[in-house]
Write a structure and sequence with these properties.
The chain is α+β, with helices and mostly antiparallel strands. 19% of the residues lie in helices and 56% in strands. The protein is built from two helices and ten strands. Strands 1, 2, 3, 4, 5, 6, 7, 8, 9 and 10 form a ten-stranded antiparallel beta sheet that branches. The longest helix has 25 residues. It is globular.
């Protein structure tokens, strides 16, 4: 009987300590969760007309590598470095954003989701052109990038 009681107590302590570890991991600030090496797994652009009806969709071949630390660095499929920028993370109305400069243009993405292994960024722009059997203009585009962090498997 004492052995069963002792084993039950050990199991309870083990389960409780695992739950605490998970809570610590989730409660990290977004600025800390972003840090690491991230590989793009999908990049999608969805274009809408002025009535918010989808008119076109395109996908880019994923394969960029983003290394986020003190700065943000991006590499292409051949591991060629093509971006270094300082970045800032802000919270506006409960939404987290990452901002940086890319090719002289300021970029701001909403960090829609981030955990230890996956991350999603979303950016909306208005009055944009796209190519669908010729150049066309959309009222807005929603650009989404999904990332995986293989170093945390």
């Amino acid at each position: 009987m004492k052995k069963i009681l002792l084993l039950s107590l050990i199991a309870l302590v083990t389960v409780a300590s695992c739950k605490k570890d998970k809570k610590k991991e989730i409660s990290k600030p977004v600025t800390e969760q972003l840090k690491g090496t991230w590989l793009t797994i999908s990049e999608n652009s969805v274009y809408f007309d002025s009535s918010n009806k989808q008119v076109f969709q395109s996908s880019n071949t994923p394969g960029s590598k983003y290394v986020i630390g003190d700065a943000i660095n991006r590499f292409d499929l051949a591991d060629k470095h093509n971006l270094t920028s300082s970045y800032a993370v802000t919270n506006v109305n409960g939404k987290n954003y990452i901002s940086f400069t890319d090719g002289g243009a300021s970029q701001r993405f909403e960090v829609v989701y981030v955990d230890t292994k996956m991350m999603t960024w979303k950016q909306e722009k208005t009055n944009v052109t796209y190519n669908d059997n010729g150049t066309k203009t959309a009222a807005k585009v929603v650009y989404t990038i999904n990332f995986h962090c293989p170093c945390r498997d």
